[in-house]
Give the backbone structure.
Amino acid sequence: MQNVEEYLKKNQDRFLKELIELLKIPSISADSAFSQDVLDTAEAVKNALQKAGCDKVEICETDGYPIVYAEKILDPKLPTVLVYGHYDVQPPDPVDLWNSPPFQPEIKKTDLHPEGAIYARGACDDKGQMYMHVKALEFMVNTHQLPCNVKFMIEGEEEVGSRNLSVFVANNKEKLTNDVILISDTGMIAKDVPSITTGLRGLSYVEVEVTGPNRDLHSGLYGGAVANPNNILAKMIASLHDEDNRITIPGFYDKVQELSEEERAQMAKAPFSLEKYKNALSINDVRGEAGFSTNERNSIRPTLDVNGMWGGYTGEGAKTVIPSKAYAKISMRLVPNQDWQEITEIFKRHFEAIAPEGVKVKVKPHHGGQGYVTPIDNTAYQAASKAYETTFGKVPIPQRSGGSIPIVSLFEKELKSKTILMGFGLDSDAIHSPNEHFGIWNYLKGIETIPYFYKYFTEMSMDLEN
Ligand code: BES
Ligand code: MN
Ligand code: MN
């Protein structure tokens, strides 16, 4: 690979400016008030892919937000890399907690990022990381170093469950044929500890509703005599974990793939400081399933968490009321072999079964997806590993992540291809939180590393053929 560093130096200001323009568009897929912005972002991504050198660029309509598809096919006999990413972002709420407006990107220097980091919603998840691939392509095309075919599929509904992408993939298998899928929508251990994500957790997301009396009641006149849905819901939720912080739903762990002692020992070698972890979150202790380390708890073990809970009076001051209804949004992170639909079903059965007399319970499934693990003894992983080794000077550590990108397991099922997760974000980037940011160093390192993946993957695949 020639001149990648030189090309970066020459063009980095423009690379930053272009990303900043993209980050200014509030492409919030969850909020229909922003639908025009989401559509405008698709258009901007399409134009960027065209400028970067793709031959065919299309906006593919779906029942929801469109998918941007692009390709550059050099020769059908060469390998094909399919890049996936998403142009939609999470809502910025709570907006008051941002130090600068979420859609007016600002570059700020921090101890961790002396080169500066871009602060904006979507900076890391996933506009910044997706755009690294666009710029890496631009570099390869402009310097005549693109070694293989490339396809891009950038969606606008990842943050709301990728429902329409599933349909698109199932209906366009021919168009999407590839030899490997490449995604940058995860993180790495640290700037000086490169890692490749080898697993993602699955997800089952549900909403529960507990109904007591037919209307809100005076908490003096009725308090103590009828079931209070808030009290009942809190008790039901509390019963979902035992003393060891294990989930009590019968059958929940039945299919969990347990790791061997050897695999666990391997995992434990990844650098990690519990003190730093606690300090970064201002907590005096960690908490989780007995018998597992923090790194295990947040990657290879399933979880159940309340994401939001409401009912009754939550406004300013006090109002004396027993609510008619109480609600909670619950996510279960799943590990390989757990089936998200089955887990949703057993959750529903259990939650309905534990409801006491005096209330009615409804469980409404939202969305979900399967977990994913990728082996490391294949050409694609080896090529990615070599790419990091070239640009970081260190062999990257394979690491399973706790986050979910449910579409990845669907890619494997429908397109029969493996996915390489080359994430360049850091845990401290605050994705989904106020003050999300992405280090300029990380952004440029991504653009520098990606072309090497193409190079090594093509070379290694062709060697296998000969
Ligand atoms: N990019 C994240 C997932 C992620 C982040 C995985 C960091 C690993 C490391 C993605 O955009 C995301 O937020 N996914 C959702 C699930 C989706 C169905 C809404 C998640 O994990 O909560
Ligand atoms: Mn993402
Ligand atoms: Mn996300």
